[in-house]
Structures are given as C-alpha cells and as structure tokens.
Amino acid sequence: MRVFLAAIILSFGVIAAAQSVDIRRDGNTFKVIGASTGTLVVYAGSGDVPPLAGSSSAETGTIVFHPRFPLAPGVRYRVVFTPRGGSPIEKTFESPASAPVPSARVERVYPSADVLPSNLLRLYIYFSAPMSRGEAEQRIHVLDANGKVLPGVFLPGQELWDPQNRRLTMTFDPGRIKRDLASNRRMGPPIAEGRRYTLLIDREWRDANGAPMIEAFRKNFRGGPAVRQPPDPKAWMIATPPANSRTALVVSFGRPMNYTLLQRMLKIQDPRGAAVSGIIEVGKAESEWRFTPVREWTAGSYRLIVDNGLEDLAGNKIGQPFDIDVFDRITEHITTSTEALPFEIR
Amino acid sequence: MKFLKIGSLAAALVLTVYAVQPRPVVAAGDTASGNVGLKSAGALAFGPDGVLFVGDSVGGAVAAIETGDKTPAAAGAKVDVQGLDTKLAAMVGVQAGDILINDVAVNPISKNVYVSAARGRGPDAAALVVRVDTAGKLTLLPLDNIKHDTVSLSDVPADNPGARQNPRTQTITDMQFVNGNLMIAGMSNEEWNSALRSIPYPFKTAGKGTQLQIWHASHGRYETQAPIRTFVPYTIDGQQYVLAAYTCTPLVKIPVSDLKAGAQVKGVTISDLGSGNQPLDMVPYKKDGHEFILVANSSFGVVKLHADNMGQYKPIDSPTVVDVAGAPYDKIASVTNVRHLTAFDATRAVVLTSAGGGGFGPATGPFNIQTIALP
Q1: Residue B45: in which H helix or E strand, if any?
Q2: What predicted TM-score, i.e. pTM, was given to this entire model?
C-alpha cells in the first residue's frame, strides 16, 4: 500500500535541528520546514484514530505531506513530526467550518396531478442543485388530512438518485401495493382512494455542500382509484400535424404516464425508417406527449415506436399490468419489446 | 417460536436474466494495474483467490479487484472494531457524518473484512474500500493503482447522446459469486424491473440474455415483477439454489440450474414477514444437525428461520392450493440495529451495527463491526 503510507520516514542525510523546525499548512499540504529526516504523521479529528492517508516528499529542507484526499472544512488536523533521535513536535490546525449558503429547492415532483391512483408506484423529485445522500428517509413525509405523518409509506433502503444527485426516485412500498401480499393485507395500500394527503419535503435536507434548502416543499393530493388495466397504445389519440410544418405531433394517452420514461420510450420513425430528431414535451399531467421535429414534416407514412416498458403511474407496462392475475389469464406477458403505431402526414 | 403466515399470497415474479458485454479493456481474464475508476463503491462480493467484486452503481460497472489478500486466517481469528465510521473518517479527513457505509464482505481465505463506503454525501463523493483485518487495523485499498478488471453494466445506450449525462442508473442491490458466475441484482431509478445479471468470471464475452419467469409458490393469483433486494447461494438436498428477498415480497428459493437461457423457473416462497419489513442480508448455516437462515431485517430485527424443511416447499400451479404457514422462526434479541450481516465462518457471522436507527432508519454512529456466534 505504498500510496497510503501512514507514517513516513525519510532519510536524506541532512539532519535537521529540531528547535528550528516549523510546521505549516500550505494550501492542501502540510509542511515541516527546516527538516529533512524524521517521522511525519497527520491525524484528522480527535481521539485514538488512525493516521490521515497520504504521502510525503522531501524538498530542500522541507518535508511535505500530501493528503490522499483534499483537506475538508470543519476538521481539526494534528501534525506530529518526530525528528530522528528527537522528541515529537506537534501542531494543530483548525480547518474553519464552511457556512454554505442555501441554494437548493424542490423544482418539480412527478406525477404532477392532484389526484393520484391508490396504487401509485413511484415519485420523481427534481432538485435545483445536487443534494446529500442518506437523508431521504427522514426528510420526505406523507401526511394525512390531519397533518399526521404516515409511517411505512415508501420502500426503505437504497436511495435511487441520478448521477448528479438532482433527481431522486421514491418507490411506494410495493408490498403494500401488490394485492394479497402480507403487507397489503395487513396495512392496505399506502394511498387510500378518496383521502387527502400532503407530500412534505423538509427544508432541513442538506444539499451536496451541506446547506439546507431555501424552503420546504409541499404538494397536496387526493387518492384516486387504483389503475389496474395496462396502457393500450391502440386507444391513444394521435393528432398529426400538416406536412411542411414543424407543428408538434401530439399523442394523448387518456391517463397520466411515467414522466421519466416518456423522455425516452417513445420515438418517431420517418417513411424511410430513420429516427426523427425533435424536442419532447410532456404536458397535461403527463397524459400528453408532444413531439416537435427539428426539421419540417414531409408527407408520408410515419410510425410512433412505443417501448413496451413504458409505464403508467401504477407501474402497469404496455399490455402488462403491475400484478397479473395468473388464473384468469385475461392478460399475458408481452414478449415483443416495441409496438409501432403508424400515422400519415399529409 | 413463531410461524410466518404466508396466507393466500401468490405473487409470481418475472425475472430478467441477461448477460452483458464486458468492456474491451483487457484480454479475457487478465487484470491490469491502474486506476479502477470507481465512481462509487456499493455492493461487495468475494470471488476466487482474493478477488473482490465492487459494485459501482453510479458508474454502471462492476470491478474485480485483486486484493492479493490470500494468507489463510489463523485459528480463532475474529473481527472487532468499534467506531468504524470515526476511524475511517479520520483516515480520509472528514467528519464521521460524511462517511456513508455501503456494504460489508468477508474474504473467505483471510477472514479479513472489507467495507465499501463513500467519502461525502454529494455526487462527487469519493469511493472507498477499506480492509478491516483480524487485528483491527484499517487499510484503504489504493483504488487509483491496483490490479483489477472491469465489466460495464451499461448495455443500454444513452437516450440522448448529446445530453450532458444520462439520468438513468441501475443501483446494484446485491452481488454473489455462484458457480463461476457473478450474479448481480439491480434496481433502476426509472422503470420497475427485475434485472438479474449473470456474468462469468474471469470476465469475457458472454452469451445473449434471456427472460425467466420466477413464481412464488403459495395460494393466490397475482404475479409481478420486482427487483431483488438481497440474495444468497444455498444448497437444499444437494441442489444449488439462490434464496432471494424481493423489494416487495418475502424470501423465495430459485434453483440455480434453472437460471439459464430460455428456462422457466419456479421460485418458491419460504416466508413473508410483511408489514413493511424488508430482509437486508441473509446467512444460511447448519448447527446441531439442523439448518437455519439468519436474516437481518429492516424492521423486524434479526430472526433465525428454521430451514430443515426448505426442500418441501412446492411451487403453486393451481388456484385451489391452500397454503399453510411459512418457515418457523425465532427472534434474536441479543443483537440489535444490524445494518449489514454476512457469514464469517461455519459458526460465526459478521455484523455491522449502528448505535441507533436499525435496519433502514436514519443511522446514527458510532458504527461497530464484529463477529458474533451464529445462534
């Protein structure tokens, strides 16, 4: 483990006089000036802790300690230099705690509707700045109509972030949603039809810099009926734009769909089978998908390619409900990965 | 002793098992020294010869790291470190609250314990893997220069190559090395799916994937897809299984031999604790001629399942089947606030405990890691 030398003994032949040694912090390093031989150990924090990981080098009468990781605010560093044959010399450095300014807020939450199905599977929370991991469970609450925090609403465990920590995916406890599981039988679904709720996200949630948010976030909603039928593309309405225009194609689903999946699971193919480039907008509480092409539509037969993994709010996929009734055999597993819906541009 | 009611549960799970293409970084089976390039260090599993698999959910990859840690443990070796978070924080120069511990694995040869963690809570948090040896010493693995091989799990192209960064991630919930294959359970941050990957190690080009149907066996009628939270290899009556706990449902057993292309498998329910509880980790073991599974739970604490009759659980194939009860279990009150549990040897396990907030609750330090006798 040569990179992580905890204690470094340097022997360069020049013996330093201990009394003239000076220990300084210089940016992201610690320097022992006036010494070339001895043992240099840095400790972060207090108590009986292992040494700070890093490496040392000798530079003309100076020993320089390079920490493996950048020095952090709010941490006390104790630098101990023991000259060969001498007594330890010690100096403590307080790294001032940072006082980050609040800059983050909840920008959006999907689904955006005010009435949400009682078998709603997921929430997607968009923040304006990168957030801290490990706090979601204590910062996100669902309150009942009396303002009481409801326990056991969300699936605990791994926090599902995007790589920037700006979008968090929360899953309602699927054991309470899936019919006939023990949790479902004992506790019922997390959301009850007809009841009123508030999603509350605490201001105290720290962003990636450690600052709280600018403000708390509240979203009021009401429980609606469970959605058990899988989405059927054949029932969708496609409003086709005229040729030689850049008017948006509008697909209406007749129900809200999963916002994140609408960004990538619908595609347009032109008459030659090539993908059409364009801008996607999702509206009307995620029940409408608008596609504005980069170039004008030309007359001909286009196709809307639907990924069968597209979900509605309850996790029902195309042709496949979230929980399949295996004995009625009304629904079966879908084996194709996509469906194509043709439409004409005239 | 209590009995877990399965009731008229009947969920079947559709499980997608597919192979992935390794990155063409090095030739098959070779490892090279250099920076592992981990963007995060999550799930851990040991393979052969001291190879440590590290799941990188943020980077969408798994690294196989040659730890070189191949000296067999001395008899009676144990692990006992109090304040692991404080010590690790001191080594990397942050406050203890800025250390997030992600997983724990035991090197089956040396019995040294490996812990994955993050230095920081933001998107730029550094990945850490630390070895906790049987003398209690902590050593950071030099992830910027160590022999390794990497396999990418990003078999799906970015939706919009022009976008700054693909928002999709597949969080690796658990990994196990079973019969020469690294099995990886994952959970998407976008769609609800049940991906279980199987990658031969040493990493090399694998065959195309397939979709399996995994059924719960008990009376009922609904089947669903669900991600696997935790799983562990287990032998029942001479046959290799994996015991899997889903995010939605109880423990099921799945024959490993069935996890291959084109097969339809029957996953059989062992127990369903219900009531919002989730199994975190499992350790199967034998004691006094009986078989048990020690399970650390999110809200039920640690329980010991009596597993002698595991082979008798049959899959459901008819709505007329009337179920009885799940595996009997004992609650183990002697160990609390367990966040990670893994096997140490035939008679002991390793637990990582927090001072407060057991299971999934907000953790409060200090975190301790120690061997305990299997009950």
Answers
A1: strand B44-46
A2: 0.89
